[in-house]
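To make this tangible, this section ends with a sequence with its C-alpha cells:
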Amino acid sequence: QVQLVESGGGSVQAGGSLRLSCAASGRTTYNMGWFRQAPGKEREFVAAITWGGGITSYADSVKGRFTISRDNAKNTVYLQMNSLKPEDTGVYYCAADLSRLLRRSTGAYDYWGQGTQVTVSS
C-alpha cells in the first residue's frame, strides 16, 4: 500500500514558479506521476518518473517549463513548475503506479493523493 500527500500549491502570477512535493509512505518500488484537473476539464497527465529517477515523461504542454524529480531517501517526489501560465491552473495530484512501465493514463495508477490547488493569475 502507498499513502500520498501533496503540498506546495498556492497562487502566483503568470511567469512565476512553484515547487510541488508529494510525500509517500509504504512500498518504494513504484513509478510516480503528476496529473492536474482544471475546473470543468478532464484530469490530464503532466509528468511521470520511474522509481529510480532515470526516466521521465512530460506532457507536451509543460515540456521545458516543468521538471519532475524524486528523492527516494526522503520518499518524496517533486514537480518544479516555472514560467507558469493561467492555463496551468488546477488541482494537481500525485499518483503511484506499481507497474514496471512508465505510464501516462490516469487509469494506470493505483494510488492517489488528495491534490493541491495551483492558481495562476494573468
